[in-house]
Fold Cystathionine beta-lyase.
Amino acid sequence: MSAHQDKKAGQADTHPSTNDETIVTHAGRSSGHFGAVNTPVYHASTILFPTLAAYEQKATAPVRYGRRGTPTTMALEDAISTLEGAAGTVLTPSGMSAVTTTLIAHAGPGVEFLISDAVYPPVRAFCRRLNEQFGVKTVFYDPCIGPDIAALVTDRTRLIWMESPGSHTFEIQDIAAITQVARAHGVTTVIDNSWSGGHFLKPFRLGVDIVVHAATKYIGGHADAMLGAIACNEDNLGKMRKAISDFGLCAGPDDAYLVLRGFRTLVTRLKQHNENGLEVARWLEAHPLVERVIHPALASHPQHALWREQFTGASGLFGFVIRCRDKAALGPMMDGLSYFGMGSSWGGFESLLIPVSLDGKREATRPAWQGQLMRIHVGLEHPEDLIGDLDRALERLSMADSGV
């Protein structure tokens, strides 16, 4: 039973479920809110204690100061820990703050980080600043390196950062092989698991030490909350809790409540994202203006077999490359979209489509295509409507691009 939450009324401690459908419905709930199904929003900074003795023992109290957590934030931490199989989770105000907190907690003069070359671009930029300001050396490695990452590990390597699938280019990493090397050298491993929502991939089972989420994405699922989460194994939980405390980070209760509400439908939503995404991906793969579709669940993906070993499904985020010689033709293509929005983020119920450039975002690898890379998030709309929208968009591209 969680250290944060009381036992839910009627729940048997001896029969914990291992099924995610049940976990997302029940994890993080307690009987301590007058029977309310959902943990209420606690707006709190000061927490009062009834006696001096209780106040002097406040360090062991489950709720002792708003910045240290409230029943609302603790419920979400417990829920994510249960889903991921973590020893504990700490929340941050955004996915990026979860990333930067984890990196800074492992930084130091002369320390080296091994970072996937397919990492989320702001992570690359932050690592460069860590190098410039604090002397942390970053080596960007081919995400498909697998066990050969051993050749890059030195006595100064402190952390290996993974993202699978990779940002924009969706490479699948051999997580188990990399964690095996890391453990042999005493190196901490971290993975950004936002793409799977914590459902389709279980990194702790593959030996990962820390799992980072942009809970803004699939866990929240409704494009209305900013939140990050750092789920840890037992060896790293204390370190990350201390870092969160030192940096004064805390998640707002309203966003925590919204994300926890979205968490309850996570598995159901992801199943539909998976189904819709594959239908759209297969249609794109057959379109004459599409050079390639980069979707790990398609047999055409280079690491499809590895994806099948490690994942149990795919979310709605993937890439595809279109034949487009004149980038000005992207305007007519994109501006006439009906169901696909243009905007940052993903993981909500809505579909999104944006063009992507890899300029300045790769060091160890180069793309194997010539066309225009697109990032697509397939939402919960009917796939026939989405396919129709894309079909009309590609027709506009063909008419506007003199080279097609």
Q: What stands out?
A: The radius of gyration is 22 Å.
